[in-house]
Every structure is written in structure tokens, then in C-alpha cells.
Design brief:
single chain; alpha/beta; 356 residues; Rossmann fold
């Protein structure tokens, strides 16, 4: 007679599988909880609509939860590219820092982004300044915003926009993040910095500089996109007709004279040590020459930061960037960056060194 088969090993295997599944689910739930907690911010957000010249700006207003009836306001001016109101939630750690200082934050989708009407590639820097001035006028009409405490925050390309805004309407302060002074100088600096980072040969560097010089000459004579493609031997290298039109509108941008509108206005200039987009030494010279006499300029340098003021050690790895954005988004930024902006706003409120 054959012995009856033993079933204990099978039961043991089922128990192990069940407990493994339970462990995985518990860990997954824990991670999901961490993600939700880390991406929850101590502020209230609401969608708002701003009318501007027959157009609509789709915005987000983030306000502190401190029970006050009125708050100062930080108006966000985007850098280059198709950016939505929250910059894919990248602005939120900064908005939270503003809220802790008693300031609300206002930002909007660029035209043509996230369903917003229009096309941001049709805009000049003056168009962008008009847009921001309209947003400030809208904010000043709100009972929950202190119209005497409205300032600007802007990154990169916003460096050409914010001084123009200040020339159109009074602003109480400016936070300038990695701004450039001159469009063409910035473009050449960026080209050479990226070639160095790639370890480009002398021959490749010479070819790229020649291509850049050709592009400049085409812009100076207002060449069409078709002429550009022909001059490049049929290789547009990612350039589109819309992008060519945008560059043609804005390649003469230079903040040197426009910065005079910020004299006497408290300005926090934040610069990164590993910025391949903007020549930070050129930017600091320009800002100091224009604004130091008024005594309202404060400059902060961040040794481990990139152009976007993220930690270089994180930005260079897609995996680290994704995991940090999910599990600890405030840690994306260079050490001290968020605290410095919060303290700058707090000093304004106390009438300290940053105050006008």
C-alpha cells in the first residue's frame, strides 16, 4: 500500500506566499503614505482665473493657513519652456516656505500649456511683463492680498521680464533665481559650457561655434525659418518654426538698462555654482553695478547647486531625482535655498535689512 502524500510542505509554501504578499502590501502602503505625507504642504491652494487683454490666465493661488485676513504676495514668473502653474509641483516647496513667512503665492499656466489659451512661443519679454502686471493688478483688487506687499519671484529667462514688470507697476521685492543679463552672451556661455561638460574635441567645438555664429547673423538680418534650415544644410537640429519665431522676437534681450527699475527695491539674487546655462559671474557683476548703490541687493551662492537650484548630486541621476521628488521633495533644493527665501520675506515683514 502506498503511503498517503504529505501536504504540510504545500501548506507551508502557501503560508510563506501569503505572508510575503502581506509584507509587500504593507511596505507599499507605507511608501504610499510617505509619498502622500511628503507631498502635502502647509498651505491652501485654489484655482483662479485672471483676465488679461481679452485673454484668460489659468492660475493657482496658494495662501497661508495662519488665520490672517490679508497676506503679502509672491508672483511667480516662469523661466523658458512650456511650464504649468505649479511647474509640475516643483514650486510647492517654495510656496510652503512663502506661506510660513506669511506670504501667498500666485502662478499661472503659460499660454498654450495645460489647456490654457494662446501660445507662449508667440510672446516677447514685454508681452510676458504685461501679463505679470495684469496679474498684479488682479491681485491688488483682492481683499485677501495686501497690495503694498506684492513682489516677484522669477527664474532664468524671468530675469529679462521682472525688471520690465517693475517699470510698469510698483513691486515690493524681487527674488531672482539664476537670471541672465544678455541673451546672446548667455547663449554662447551655455554652448561652451555644455561642450566642455561633454568633453567635446577642438574640432567639434569649432564647428558648433561656427554654427552659432551663423545663427546670430541670420537673426540679425531677420531671416525666416526656411532660410535658417537652408543655412544649416537642411539639419534643423531640433529647431522648429515656432521656436525660431520666439528666438527672433527675443534674442536682443538685455537686462542691463531695465535693472534700473529695481533700484531701491529689495532684491535677493540666488546663484548656483554648477550653472551651465547662465554665467553667474556676469550676472552678479550686472546686478551689483545696477543695484549695489541702493543697498537693497542681497546675493546668495549655493556651492552644490545647478541652474534650477537643485542639488547637483540629485539632478544628475534620473533615479535619484524621481525618488527624491516622491519621498522628500523639499530635499531636491540646494541646502539653505528654501530657508533663505523664507528669511528674506520675514525680514521684509519685520522691517529688517531686506526691507526698503
Amino acid at each position: 500500500m502506498c503511503p498517503k502524500p504529505k501536504i504540510r510542505p504545500r501548506r507551508r509554501g502557501v503560508r510563506i506566499a501569503v505572508w510575503s504578499l502581506v509584507t509587500v502590501l504593507v511596505v507599499a502602503a507605507g511608501l504610499a503614505g510617505v509619498v502622500l505625507w511628503q507631498n502635502s504642504y502647509d498651505m491652501d491652494e485654489r484655482r483662479v482665473t485672471i483676465r488679461h487683454g481679452g485673454h484668460t490666465l489659468n492660475g493657482v493661488l496658494a495662501t497661508p493657513r495662519d488665520g490672517r485676513k490679508q497676506h503679502g504676495l509672491v508672483v511667480y514668473i516662469h523661466g523658458d519652456g512650456p511650464i504649468d502653474a505649479t511647474h509640475d509641483d516643483g514650486y510647492k516647496p517654495m510656496w510652503e516656505a512663502n506661506a510660513r513667512a506669511g506670504y501667498a503665492s500666485l502662478s499661472w499656466d503659460k499660454p498654450g500649456v495645460a489647456g490654457a489659451p494662446g501660445d507662449w512661443l508667440d510672446q516677447s519679454m514685454d508681452d510676458r511683463a504685461d501679463e505679470a502686471a495684469a496679474a498684479i493688478a488682479w491681485a491688488r483688487a483682492r481683499p485677501d492680498i495686501d497690495g503694498d506687499r506684492i513682489g516677484l519671484w522669477g527664474a532664468s529667462q524671468a530675469g529679462w521680464v521682472m525688471p520690465k514688470v517693475a517699470a510698469r507697476t510698483p513691486v515690493s521685492f524681487v527674488v531672482a533665481v539664476s537670471p541672465a543679463i544678455n541673451w546672446l552672451r548667455q547663449g554662447r556661455y551655455n554652448l561652451l559650457a555644455e561642450l566642455r561638460a561633454d568633453g567635446a574635441s577642438a574640432a567639434r567645438t569649432k564647428a558648433e561655434v561656427t554654427r552659432s555664429d551663423t545663427t546670430r547673423r541670420l537673426l540679425e538680418r531677420h531671416a525666416s525659418f526656411e532660410e535658417y534650415v537652408k543655412a544649416m544644410g537642411g539639419d534643423a537640429d531640433g529647431m522648429t518654426a515656432d521656436r525660431w519665431g520666439f528666438i527672433s522676437k527675443n534674442y536682443t534681450a538685455d537686462a542691463t538698462r531695465d535693472l534700473r527699475a529695481l533700484r531701491g527695491v529689495p532684491v535677493l539674487l540666488t546663484l548656483a555654482a554648477h550653472d551651465v546655462n547662465v554665467d553667474t559671474a556676469d550676472t552678479e557683476r550686472g546686478y551689483r553695478k545696477a543695484l549695489d548703490a541702493g543697498g537693497a541687493l542681497k546675493v546668495e551662492h549655493y556651492p552644490g547647486a545647478t541652474h534650477s537650484l537643485l542639488k547637483q548630486s540629485i539632478e544628475r541621476s534620473d533615479l535619484k531625482l524621481t525618488l527624491t521628488a516622491l519621498l522628500s521633495p523639499r530635499s531636491l533644493f540646494a541646502d539653505g535655498f528654501l530657508d533663505d527665501q523664507r528669511q528674506f520675506l520675514e525680514e521684509l515683514g519685520r522691517g529688517g535689512p531686506a526691507a526698503p
